[in-house]
Each structure stands twice: as C-alpha cells, then as structure tokens.
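Reopening this ticket.

The earlier resolution said the output was attached, but the attachment link was broken on my side. Pasting everything inline this time so it's all in one place.
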Amino acid sequence: MFRKMMKHLANNPGLKLLSLLFSVVLWLMVVNVADPEATKFFSVPVEILNKDVITEMGKVPNVVGDSDIAVFYITGPRSYVEDMASDDFNVTADLSQVDLSQEGDAKLVPIEITAKKNDRRIDVVRRTVNMQITLEDRSEQKFIISAETTGTPAKGSAIGNVEVTPNLLKISGPASVVSRINRVAASINVDGISSDVSDNVMPVLYDENGLVISSDLLEINQSVVTIRAKILSTKNIPVRCQVSGTPAAGYEYRGVEYAPDSVLVKGDAAVLNGISAINIPPDVINIDGASSDVEVSIEIVPYLQEMGISLVDDTANQIAVKAIIEQKSTKKFNLPVKDIKITGLSSSYELEFSAETVPINVRALEEDMEGLKPEDIEVILDVTELQPGTYTRQLMINLPGDKYELVSQVNLQFNIVDKDGEPEDSENNSGPVQGGDSDDDSSQRPEEREEETGEETDRT
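Inline output:
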C-alpha cells in the first residue's frame, strides 16, 4: 500500500509542486513565529566629510539647528534589529555634494546611512534626508585652558597647584560658533587621591551660561592636553594675636579675642611639621590711646605666604580680632595723717599737720578695687634736713601692685616745730603758710635767713 502511494506521488508533478509550496509556507510560518518582524528607531550624529571644500572658499560651514542629527529607523527580524546599536551605522554628510547654486542662505547636504553589519537582514528607513548648512566667515581665537578638578582628595590631603600643558588652545571655525565660546577648561578627578596625579584629557568648550559647546565644524590645534594636580598635606594651625600700645588714661587692656582661632592650611608635609602657630605681629593691632574695644579684620594670606603654605578654603582669609579695653573706676580714700610714715625728722623736732586726713584717689578695675583697703596704702613723708618752718611736700604713695594706679600726686602742708625753741611771733603762729616762714622775722641771724630763703626757693 505504501509503495503504491509513493509511486503515485512520484509520477504526479503537480503534487510535487504543491508539496514544495506547502513546505515554504510552513517554513515562513515557523520563522515568523520564532523571529518576527521588529522596528527600532535611532538618532545618530552626522559625520561631516570633506570640510576643506568649503574652507578653500574662505568660508566655513555652520549647521542649521539640529540638522546634523540623523533620525531613522530600521526594520527586519527581531534578532537582527535588536542586535543593532548607534555605533553600528555610518552616518555621513559629504560637503563635496552640496549644491552651492541653491537659493537662500541654507544649503542642503545629503545624508548617507549605511549599516556596518546585518545590512542584508535589515532595511533602513530615513526620516532625516538632508543636513542644512550655512556658509559663514571663518574666525580664529586663542583661549587659555583653565585647570579644574572634580572630587575630594583623601582625608588629610588637599589640592595644591593644578596646571595644564599646553595651556593655550587655538580654535577656528564659523564666527557664530567661535564667538559663543566663553572659556576652555580641562578637568582631572582627584577623588580619594593622596598623592600627585596627572591625566591626558580633552579640553571642553563652554559658553557664558556654562553649557558645553560641541561642533564638528570647529578645529582645535590640541585635541588632548596633559593636566597635573599636586596633592598637599593639611594641618589645622592655631592663630596667635598680640597687641601694641597703651590705652588712654583710666583704661586697661584686658586681652584679645579673635575668630577663627585656627585655620586649616595646606603645604608640603615637611613645612607643615615645622609650624606650630601663625603669629600676627603686635603692630597690626595698636591700642594707643584707646578708650573702647579695638576691632580689626586681618587678612591672613600674606602671613601664610611667608611660611610657604596656603589656605585649604580660600574664602577663610579674614580673621576678626577684638582687643578688649575696659574703663577703670576711681575711689577716694581719706587716710588719717597719723598713719603717715615720717622719715628724716630730727629727734628735737616735731611735726604738725593742718588736717586730720589726706585724700588719695586710686584708679583700678572694679573687680580689683573691691579688694583694696585703706591700710593697704603706704604713705611716706620725707623731711630729711628740713628745719623748723612751714612746708608743702609731695607724699610718696605706694599701692599694693601694678593693678592700682594713683590718679594724681598728693601734696601735703605741714609745720616743723622745735621742741625746745622759743615760741614764734604772732605772724608765724597765725597758721601754716605754704612756701615757708615769713621773711619779717628780724630775730633770725643772716645765715639762718639765707638758709631759709634757699629752702623757700626749693619749695617753690
């Protein structure tokens, strides 16, 4: 039975053809189920070719808008479509194909899109067909490349000098694009770094808003530059401030306050190890004649530069200093004259005072004044070689310590009397007279009058 069926099929060409068609349809059905059709969209930057065609004309091409971004999609079996990425396409615009006879400022340049692989398995469907360009005058400028860093160095380290080699970049291209360039920078990552580091990087162009400028129509003379960052040690060093001068009379310097009282600096480890403090010279803070607190702001950078170090934070340059000046209080002490120590008085003389107390004004801080007692004040009157008569002399007053001061010198009038002498005449007994005895005492010997006259001159 089987042999009869096979013989029948072999001798029937129509059945053979039908079987073949059925097999193809069945295969297509299986393929479509296992690997169905798929679509994928792409946006790829256009590579511009043969720019020299335009530059030889003394012009440069400038892309209009985003027309240098080709938008397209591909179709085909899913396995092939999903295997394709943007880098798997050549997207080019050949400036030698531009039609310069076109009317208007914008010229159209055809965009070619080809797949680097699977080109027989997929179809490319274009959305963007042409790139638009305008022809502009060529401009050329030079820019200094600024060095920048990203990240934070390791703990105990700080960024020192950062330099770029070469640091000058020459850029040429369309005037409208070149004029947008505000600065050029090269950046190096120092995150977690504790030693010097270098890298080769591409300079980045920025406009005035800090946005990156990218254009294939620009030409630069250095595509890669070398950037080096020196990593320094850090140390927190205390600040020491001194003052010069003397406050006004009746005032006392109590000390100095300043903030911050330490600064974080950076430098070579060997240099930092030899620095224990940053000393501000006394002449920077002068309190001569001050009757209130003296406040100044000091820039600390010059003192750091002298030591070969610098601030970790450049904004922490100011030290606010306040020299505290406090007014003293004055207190009057009425000391009994009996407590005055007399020196140089002859045993045959005695001394008489015209008052029972002598006023002494002392000046000191309030807190010190509370502890001062009259018995702490020593008053001395020296009458060495003085003869009987009336005198005015300056008292020697000793206060207990430098924290007390005498407001003014104290003069005291007194009489020296001879215990065994004759009573003086009525004029001399009328009372003590400052400056000495009366010159009308005719009973005095000439030499006595001459001696007393000399004493009067001395008192005057």
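Reporter confirms the inline version is readable. The longest strand covers residues 130-150. The two ends are 169 Å apart (CA to CA).
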